[in-house]
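FAD-dependent oxidoreductase, Desulfotalea psychrophila. Tokens?
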Amino acid sequence: MGKKIVIIGGVAAGPKAACRVKRLMQDAEVTIIEQDTLFSYGGCGIPYYVAGDVSDEAELRSTSFHMVRNEDFFENAKGVMIMSGTRAMAIDRKKKTVKVQNVASGEEQEVPYDTLMIATGSKPFILPIPGVDLDGVFTISDLHKAIEIKDRIARGKVDNAVVVGGGATGLEMAEAFKDLWGVKTTVVEFMPQILPGIVDKPFAAMLTKHMRDNEVDVFLNEGAAEIVGEAGKVVGLRTANRTIAADIVIMATGVRPRSEIAVDAGLQISPMGAIVVNERMQTSDPSIYAAGDCIEVMHLVTGKKFYAPLGSLANKEGRVAGDNMAGIPSTFKGAIGSFIMKAFDVCIGATGLSLDAALAEGYDADVALTAPSDRAHFFPTESIVCFQMVFDRRTRKVLGVQGFGPMGDGISARIDAAAAYISMGASIDDFGTLEMAYAPPFSAAIDTINAIAYVAENLCDGRLRKTSLESFLAWMEDFESESEWVVLDIRHLIEASPFVEKFGAEKWLAVPYSEIRARYKELPQDKILIIMCGSGTRSFEIQSFLDSVDYPNTLVVSGGLNMLRRMGVDWYLG
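Tokens:
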């Protein structure tokens, strides 16, 4: 046999690297050490298995040609040996051996290597609260737990489910409980929004409303204080404000790198506990590589290292590690944290930096919003989509894009295009001329990604003056008080009249878009006019006109009522 390559970890990055090595070096002796008996599965598919979209757990472990990735498959089809049910205990870098232990028997042995790879993944973060050891408390950390969760639901043992954590996995699990099984489901999130650190507040608010519209209770700004049990089993979850009945509690409070074996071996570890690697996936020991959720990678916008535990990245990193272990120079430059998820019949996606993250990084950041049609307005299946572009005013560099709209490929296609462009350092102007495939069933002639770039361009060049959604909503909450602001609603009178009736013509003026040029002298000049339409496009046009006739005190609500309605504000009538 040729070179001995040993890989610790058999879920995503490890099997990808192993198979890549064997394709490039057929004489290599490749061994995967995996402590579980189920391995090489699509962990990101677990919520969809629980939901019933994936009918059998074996499908998560199957190839596209429907062969289950078990020991026989790897040995016979791939030429890779799997030591399943075997825990890697320690690495001896001088002897180039890995001490392993059979989980069932306790028997120990040493496995020699020429090149080693660590792909130990991540481990769930468990809140330090009473009750986490009760029967019925689960993390989404492996396939065994997913099988047990689905079995309990299928046997009618779960009427009430509580998900602790409003990140992507927690929300996907909440949908799984409610959508197929009809379980009363509650999400408890410690932060003031769901998807914290991933999307900004307006987009989180739209998703929160949609979850609630689908009868998932969402409590924000509430930390889990205690999991309540009786006779050793979960019966509820207590926060500072309430006690929620629960037959099952899902702890979805994030993950941390599983890097203990690397720490014990003296490899370089980042401050947040991830294994430090270079672009070739080499650790501080040139004979040892690492990939997947146990490492940190370069952020292609900020130029700083960050933690991105994503299955898509783990597979790419594993392939790069496999190349280099086989002697082929290959690099992984980094990532920008692209994300997308479905929630019932909508989807939400993001790539790059949020506005909050960009400001925290010191950028001169601003945000453009729009909510146009997702395809030609005359096409029967046209729907509204919401997009945000985060950009740096000084350099015009695009820093991030977020999208929200109907479930389908429309949001995904724009997020993917944005991810590629942002990774290359594209500017607002680059996005404005980005070519997207066009036909009326798929997009408008001016694609949504071009449209949001135009809004950003107008903001950056000082042609568009806006008020943030947060500022406008704060004003609406204090609507009864004296204010310098008045809404100028330029939509059709059928759309605008209910708002005028509710708030009064002194605070909510209705002058249709097509009549502004003839009637502008009716508008007050001692007030700031907050121009409102569906998406913000017509509002900008009217702002430009009013500037030309000496009505300069105007602000546009970018995203308009299309976004405000989806955010679920209390005063919205539609």
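The first strand starts at residue 4 and ends at 8.
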